[in-house]
Amino acid sequence: MLENLKWKLIERPILPVGNTYLDAFAFLVFFLLLFSSGIALKSRQGIRLRPYLQAAAFIFFIFIVHRCFCALRGTIFSFQDIGRNDLNVFNGLFILAPLIAFTLLFGRIFCGWLCPLGFMQETFFRVPLIKEFMLGQSSGAKLARLLCLLAVFCATLFLLFKFKPKTFFFVQNIASFWGLVTVILAGLFVLNQGQDLKLKSLRYFMLFVWLLIIAFGIFVTDPWCALYGNEIDYSSLISLFAVLASAAIVPMAWCRYLCPLGSVLSLLAKFYQVKMRRKDNSLISNQKTSRICYVQALEEKGLDESSCLFCKRCVEKGVSEIKEL
Amino acid sequence: MDSCAKRLASVFLILWLVFSSAKAYCDDWAGFQHDLAHSGNSSVDFKDKDLSLLWSFSPTGRTWSYKSGSSVWSSSSCIANVKGKSIVYAGFYNNNFYALNAKDGSLIWRFIAGNRFDHAPVFAEINNRPMVFVACADRAIYCLDGLSGEKIWSYETLPWSYMLSEAIVSSPVIARLNNLPLLVCAVWNSSRMPFNSFQRGQLYVLNAASGEKLYSVVLSSTPLNSPGCGKINGEPAIFISSTDGNVFALNLKDGKIIWRITLDSGLFSSTSILEDEKGSRIFIGSRFGNLYCLDAATGKTIWVNKTGHAIDSTPAIGKINGSFYVYVGSYDRNLYCFDALSGKKIWNYKTGDYVVSSCSLARIAGRLVVFGHSLDNKLYCLDGENGSLLWSFDLGKLIWAYNTRGDTIWSSPAVGMAGERPLLVFPCYDSKLYAFSITVKKEN
Fold first, then answer.
1. Residue B278: its pLDDT value, please?
2. In chain A, whose CA is at the least distance from the CA of B348?
3. What is the dihedral of CA B143, B149, B152, B156, to 10 degrees?
């Protein structure tokens, strides 16, 4: 039944690049969205535009563009084609190059303002009932969250084996394994919230493993591949389930602990000259800040810059301030 | 009276010989997807659904190697009856091209080239001489004698230079224009020469008898798929797709582009052509998972239907009760059957992994059947009408640990006759070429 689902509005290139299937229109809209987000981030009232830009990017990436914007795998694969297939190289690098440029200019605006998967995860945080469930501090609430994560883990495992391919079980399921790891890390966070920073630092190691796997020539899919590409990739769908289900228990679990693209961009964001700083005179407790920040970047000691998505909600609430270095 | 009977007997003998040889010729699987139109549809009838392995052939003497980005690891084979001898031709990744006895798989001859043979050969009898044509990744197109393997001619698409990459070639086809046999083949060459680099997907049309180039057309900077031939308004035309998402229709006479259409994504499927009373139509699958039916005269889309994932396989076209159906495999693990007229999905059969290679059609006891291969290491035989499984065979595993998804278009099965025996041939990625046939019941 899933095979026949078709949700893309545009399937043919509107502005074909050199008479090929590559569509300059998609790139132009992507630029426009990145640029608009950057400008909005810089302006004082721009924060109000954030949900609109997120919704626009969500609609654009999932319902309009007919091909996946593959930033990491496509880039690594395209390096092999330099001088051999320029079209592939152009296709692979054309996404990462502006992403790098805009991240250096404006920080992780793609993650915080445009990423559809981030937007979907964030939506759970905006539902009051789910938010209360996520942030509840009682031992009962913790136990309930742990049980839910256990159920998600079991369901992911069940789906993984139910839809496993007859061959290449590991290499065709890397996204699913990453989904399982997301659930495990979310569970570890629920057990001990104090180790959040340690868990977050794990993502660089996971990024290294991810890149290594791609470098070996393995076609690694991501949770968003099925949505972006309008394709039935079982591994992608299973990991999407795991990521979204975890995000309904631990806010933005995927973005915080595992997202490979987010990890690359967070490394680049360290070169961004505008920093968010937690106000010294901020007397708001850690419990309260967790209600403000989706990714819980407002640690007691300060602000976890590598996790910050520049949503500026903390600035609005007077917990943080922006400092130009 | 005796002489009259002798005359009658000799007339019957001649008629029998003529018809049996004509039948044998019709039952040949002459090249990629059977014919010029890539219908993948053979008239061979297996009579019985219980197929069993007749023989298998494994090339020896060379270490196999794998390079990422290979288009096909072992090429689809062709089966031909050459001067009363049934021969299976197949190229392999070990730079060897083999001619095997279709009855027992014994080696008749082999030809060694400078690089891998990764696309199907094509067989034709020209000037009463059996010839096999095959393109090689060493940038050359070879014409070999079908019986002896002797090289008749070769055409080098580009002279060697140390900055050249391996060529990505297509399966050639033999078309006839005013009785002149033409070899149509696409070759993609690239050079990394500083300041003079190029990437060229070029269509070559050669005189099949002599190897003389008639013309060539540069169509893309990316590799081209196998060309198919049909007609546009009664004029012979070539239909070819490129991996940059374009489908071209060219005049066979001079190579002029009649139309070009850009589809949704990269195209790794070749065109199949259907010509019936409703006109000429082209079928092609895309990496976005769409199966297109295009008007052969204009290139306009007649219908489009989506599968769950990329389609790299070339659609096969079969006829059941006067209606045409299109059979295609998808990366969503399914083998599909669509109505050729409306595009409506008739059935799908779920396998255990990606279905990348093309399907082949034949008959079992008069019913149309589909032979398809899935990366779950199985060769399937399905009923063409309802998609029910008739038979499946476990093949060997990939001899390499892994192949990058989308890098390889796998070989497809071929159906032909080994003498009086129907034969299903499949070169597999486990480095074996399998031949299946019905079990012959011995009379007591």
1. 85
2. A3
3. 50
